[in-house]
Design goal:
The protein is of the alpha+beta class and 115 residues long. It has helices spanning 4-13, 23-29, 34-40, 68-80, 93-96, and strands at 21-22, 52-57, 60-62, 90-92. Strands 1-2-3-4 form a four-stranded mixed beta sheet. It binds a DNA duplex (13 and 13 nucleotides) through helix 2, helix 3, strand 2 and helix 4.
Length: 115
DNA sequence: CAGGTGACTCTTT
DNA sequence: GAAAGAGCCACCT
């Protein structure tokens, strides 16, 4: 049976290009805590870990990883997918946030997101 | 089996 | 508003 980390990683794999999710958001989805989600990001294997951000406040995400090198890499990967950062390094979750309705998998309107 | 450890978040100074 | 503190829980010794 898949452990919590595996479930988190599986969830992260479903985040489409150009969209992002927060640790708290994913934590709710798998019924765990944000820290556990963060820890799960250290899992080996190929998955879009860079699409997971911390939540600065309601509707605003930002890169929270401590390691500077990784943070820079994460930002580059996201920008390459069309995710826009504010001057402060914030990301508008209303535009780039990943919203999923389990059934249809219908995404929210992608305003500004590049395909 | 108990305890330490975080890619976080929320509340309270 | 920035800064600090508590809570959180799966995994690993």
């Amino acid at each position: 049976v898949p452990g919590t980390f595996a479930k988190v990683v599986a969830l992260v794999r479903r985040i489409p290009r150009g969209r992002v999710a927060t640790y708290g958001q994913l934590a709710k989805m798998v019924r765990t805590t944000p820290r556990v989600v963060g820890f799960a990001m250290r899992s080996p294997g190929e998955f879009p870990w860079h699409r997971v951000l911390g939540q600065r406040r309601r509707g605003i995400g930002h890169i929270t990883i401590g390691d500077e090198r990784s943070a820079v890499r994460q930002r580059q990967l996201l920008e390459r997918e069309g995710v826009k950062f504010s001057l402060r390094g914030d990301i508008d979750l209303a535009v780039f946030g990943w919203t999923t309705s389990s059934a249809g998998g219908r995404q929210s309107a992608r305003r500004g997101a590049r395909s």
